[in-house]
């Protein structure tokens, strides 16, 4: 019987039973917290040239986002195997939901659900970095300005870069247009991928649209505040601060098969037709997988 | 070809004086001429060694005579002021920076003996804004062109130096864009700023800071003077720190203030010539600036000995921290010990009160 397998029995059953390793006890957690506090007070941690603060991200920002990820939105991640374990990659996703929660959730998804615990370095609009607190926190979380120089620098450095080419058109679109992709900018992300030869990983995020369904837009107020839109949702601003609580929609995040760009060569970035075609290809892929995910999801909140 | 007669402007400042002293030690250089408007301090004068000091204002044509009579072949231009406080107001500062450079370049253009021109420029030419790319290379330009202050002056100066290079193609021109200097001896805007026990910063902003140790600055300037690099190079230490991190590592207390309040505080302190919180300085303290130093390492051929972190640590050794790191470490270690002791005590009490159920005496039985 060549196909028979030998299953090794435990050689000695008299071994004492080893209790399963429990999660860190409370005193270890407090001690860890104190050690973190010491590092923060003495500045004894590393930050990179983009302002990314791994210590703060791992110990404060990600733990804050995690309950939202697993309990509130019950995010299901599909296709992490399409994201490479090492080296650069450009994750291109749809953008929606008035507040960029989708970017945060994608960051948590790749860090917690990917075997290599990859960090997603997001590219944000310049408005983000103009704002106090939000701007500096975004940098500490690993974001940087959406410009080709930064994208290429991160990609050559072997980082996983997250980009939302729809920008404000996507995140600030009315609820009735949910899950329809907007125009994909000028294809800057494709040129960045072509120049660095990094694969493009299309990513579809379902669920963010229903967190803050935008039923109105007070344009005058937006202009007054210098914002791209001022959202009116069923709960905001009617319920005041309570309206800031996102609706607990069910989320699905799917990473599609990588689109390889290295074979075109860096000079292909100068070919606008190729750039347009690739942009369209990525856009179509994301739209298609959005529809598939929507069919998979039984209802908005389950 | 090594230089024979070197003229250094701005020798009464620390870096200029240190460079002149360094060059004076080099026996292959025949003469080192130091120029400044104010005479160097006695201590500096001692260090300058065989440097000949000429008290002259580069803003008047006398400088041309000095260059011509001494047949200077290498000019190092360092007499650029970065703060209005140091030169008696914004008006005189601009005059010294821009008109001074123009006069000096005019003199150099006339003098056929000049073969080399080294400019101590600044990475301030890249400005500082929220729309900047994270890391500037030499080919990039400011996204928001600085409208005033030191950055504008630096841009203008570089412009004049570029047109000088076009008119005198036989002169090798090196423009070095330095990041912020730090070190135990150098005096800069940043060292002044960080010497305060309470450091006010803009609330909600945190700049990325790249530093250069004074020794590296000196080494780069010496190499630029005696070498043959022509072109523009960013000069900065490896790595970056956040401003909040810098303040914490120095044991300073950060006082975040809303930007408008910081503006009025800045006007107040500037009046006393204390710390410069000009709008330009504020932008730098909000957004920071990082430069790529590949050209420095590969073309210029120098790798700074100190990283940003090490340079800061060297500077920190000269300051008495307000919150000493040892105290913080001591307190947290003691607290950790306490927690561990409380934890083990609670654990043993818990064990006695609710003893763990004995491990079941079950054994897996081998299949026959």
TrEMBL record, chain A:
<dbReference type="GO" id="GO:0016746">
    <property type="term" value="F:acyltransferase activity"/>
</dbReference>
<dbReference type="Pfam" id="PF01553">
    <property type="entry name" value="Acyltransferase"/>
</dbReference>
<dbReference type="InterPro" id="IPR002123">
    <property type="entry name" value="Plipid/glycerol_acylTrfase"/>
</dbReference>
<keyword id="KW-0808">Transferase</keyword>
<feature type="region of interest" description="Disordered">
    <location>
        <begin position="1"/>
        <end position="25"/>
    </location>
</feature>
<dbReference type="GO" id="GO:0016020">
    <property type="term" value="C:membrane"/>
</dbReference>
<keyword id="KW-0012">Acyltransferase</keyword>
<feature type="domain" description="Phospholipid/glycerol acyltransferase">
    <location>
        <begin position="89"/>
        <end position="208"/>
    </location>
</feature>
<protein>
    <submittedName>
        <fullName>1-acyl-sn-glycerol-3-phosphate acyltransferase</fullName>
    </submittedName>
</protein>
<dbReference type="InterPro" id="IPR016676">
    <property type="entry name" value="P_lipid/glycerol_AcTrfase_prd"/>
</dbReference>
From TrEMBL, chain B:
<dbReference type="InterPro" id="IPR050177">
    <property type="entry name" value="Lipid_A_modif_metabolic_enz"/>
</dbReference>
<protein>
    <submittedName>
        <fullName>UDP-glucose 4-epimerase</fullName>
    </submittedName>
</protein>
<dbReference type="InterPro" id="IPR036291">
    <property type="entry name" value="NAD(P)-bd_dom_sf"/>
</dbReference>
<dbReference type="Pfam" id="PF01370">
    <property type="entry name" value="Epimerase"/>
</dbReference>
<dbReference type="InterPro" id="IPR001509">
    <property type="entry name" value="Epimerase_deHydtase"/>
</dbReference>
<feature type="domain" description="NAD-dependent epimerase/dehydratase">
    <location>
        <begin position="6"/>
        <end position="196"/>
    </location>
</feature>
């Amino acid at each position: 019987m060549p196909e028979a397998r030998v299953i090794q029995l435990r050689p000695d059953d008299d071994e004492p039973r080893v209790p399963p390793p429990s999660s860190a006890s409370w005193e270890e957690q407090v001690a860890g917290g104190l050690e973190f506090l010491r590092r923060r007070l003495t500045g004894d941690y590393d930050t990179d040239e983009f302002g990314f603060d791994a210590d703060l991200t791992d110990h404060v920002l990600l733990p804050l986002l995690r309950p939202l990820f697993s309990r509130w939105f019950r995010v299901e991640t599909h296709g992490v195997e399409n994201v490479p374990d090492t080296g650069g990659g450009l994750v291109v996703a749809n953008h929606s939901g008035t507040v960029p929660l989708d970017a945060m959730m994608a960051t948590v998804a790749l860090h917690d659900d990917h075997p290599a615990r990859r960090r997603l370095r997001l590219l944000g609009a310049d408005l983000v970095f103009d704002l106090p607190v939000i701007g500096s926190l975004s940098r500490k979380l690993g974001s940087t300005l959406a410009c080709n120089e930064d994208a290429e620098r991160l990609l050559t450095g072997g980082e996983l870069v997250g980009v939302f080419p729809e920008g404000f058109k996507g995140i600030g679109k009315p609820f009735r247009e949910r899950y329809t992709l907007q125009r994909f900018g000028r294809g800057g992300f494709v040129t960045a991928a072509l120049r660095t030869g990094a694969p493009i990983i299309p990513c579809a995020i379902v669920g963010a649209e229903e967190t803050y369904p935008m039923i109105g837009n007070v344009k005058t107020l937006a202009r007054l505040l210098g914002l791209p839109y001022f959202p009116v949702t069923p709960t905001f601003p009617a319920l005041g601060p309570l309206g800031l609580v996102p609706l607990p929609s069910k989320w699905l995040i799917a990473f599609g098969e990588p689109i390889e760009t290295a074979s075109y060569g860096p000079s292909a970035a100068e070919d606008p037709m190729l750039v347009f075609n690739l942009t369209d290809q990525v856009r179509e892929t994301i739209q298609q997988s959005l529809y598939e995910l929507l069919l998979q999801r039984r209802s908005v909140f389950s | 070809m090594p230089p024979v007669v070197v003229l250094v402007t701005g020798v009464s400042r620390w870096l200029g004086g240190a460079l002149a002293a360094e060059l004076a030690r080099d026996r292959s250089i025949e003469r080192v001429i130091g120029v400044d408007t104010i005479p160097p301090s006695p201590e500096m004068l001692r260090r300058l060694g065989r440097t000949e000091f000429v008290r002259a204002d580069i803003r008047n044509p006398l400088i041309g005579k000095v260059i011509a009579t001494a047949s200077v072949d290498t000019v190092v231009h360092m007499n650029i002021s970065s703060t209005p406080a140091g030169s008696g107001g914004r008006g005189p500062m601009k005059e010294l920076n821009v008109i001074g450079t123009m006069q000096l370049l005019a003199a150099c253009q006339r003098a056929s003996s000049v073969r080399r021109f080294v400019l101590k420029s600044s990475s301030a030419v890249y400005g500082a804004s929220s729309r900047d790319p994270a890391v500037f290379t030499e080919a990039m330009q400011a996204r928001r062109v600085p409208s005033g202050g030191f950055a504008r002056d630096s841009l203008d100066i570089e412009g004049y130096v570029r047109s000088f290079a076009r008119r005198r193609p036989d002169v090798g021109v090196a423009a070095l864009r330095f990041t912020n200097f730090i070190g135990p001896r150098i005096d800069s805007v940043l060292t002044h700023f960080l010497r305060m026990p309470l450091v006010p910063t803009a609330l909600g902003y945190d700049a990325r800071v790249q530093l250069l140790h004074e020794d590296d600055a000196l080494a780069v300037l010496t190499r630029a003077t005696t070498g043959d690099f022509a072109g523009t190079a960013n000069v900065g230490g490896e790595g970056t720190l956040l401003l909040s991190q810098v303040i914490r590592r120095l044991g300073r207390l950060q006082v975040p203030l809303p930007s408008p309040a910081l503006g009025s505080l800045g006007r107040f302190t500037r009046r006393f010539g204390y710390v410069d919180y000009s709008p330009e300085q504020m932008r730098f303290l909000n957004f920071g600036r990082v430069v790529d130093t590949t050209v420095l390492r590969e073309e210029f051929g120098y790798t700074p000995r100190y990283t940003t972190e090490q340079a800061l640590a060297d500077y920190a050794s000269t300051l008495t921290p307000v919150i000493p790191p040892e105290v913080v470490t001591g307190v947290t270690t003691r607290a950790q010990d306490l927690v561990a002791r409380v934890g083990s005590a609670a654990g043993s009490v818990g064990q006695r009160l609710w003893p763990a159920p004995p491990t079941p005496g079950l054994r897996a039985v081998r299949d026959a």
